[in-house]
């Protein structure tokens, strides 16, 4: 298992809520746990992946996500079992949308 940690600049996420789980790791791609807890202007991401040697791809996918999303103030843990970059990107978008739909204020 490889663990990768990132802290990337991102627009602040204005919505607050309890932790949120998106996806199912047993589905063959990935699950994400989102919680408040990073600096307002940064997003913390931790990747736990069974696929070794893909750090440059993870870095590119997550930097793109942080740049185009309001993920500042969030800590996101990704449990991956071989998802493609496109699936990871879609799952991250789905997670932010779910966070914003069910958040307070």
TrEMBL record:
The keyword Cytoplasm applies. The modification O-(phosphoribosyl dephospho-coenzyme A)serine is found at residue 27. This is Malonate decarboxylase acyl carrier protein. The lineage of its organism: Bacteria, Pseudomonadati, Pseudomonadota, Betaproteobacteria, Rhodocyclales. One of its GO terms (cellular component) is cytoplasm. Keywords: Cytoplasm, Phosphoprotein. It is found in: Cytoplasm. InterPro entries: Mal_deCO2ase/Cit_lyase_ACP (IPR023439), Malonate_deCO2ase_dsu (IPR009662). The gene is mdcC. Covalently binds the prosthetic group of malonate decarboxylase. NCBIfam families: malonate_delta.
């Amino acid at each position: 298992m490889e663990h990768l940690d990132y802290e990337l600049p991102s627009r602040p996420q204005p919505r607050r809520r309890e932790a949120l789980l998106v996806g199912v790791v047993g589905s063959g791609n990935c699950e994400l746990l989102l919680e408040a807890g990073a600096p307002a202007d940064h997003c913390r991401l931790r990747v736990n992946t069974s696929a070794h040697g893909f750090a440059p791809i993870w870095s590119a996918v997550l930097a793109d996500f942080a740049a185009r999303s309001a993920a500042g103030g969030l800590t996101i843990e990704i449990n991956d079992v071989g998802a493609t970059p496109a699936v990871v990107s879609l799952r991250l978008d789905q997670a932010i949308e779910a966070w914003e739909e069910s958040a307070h204020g």
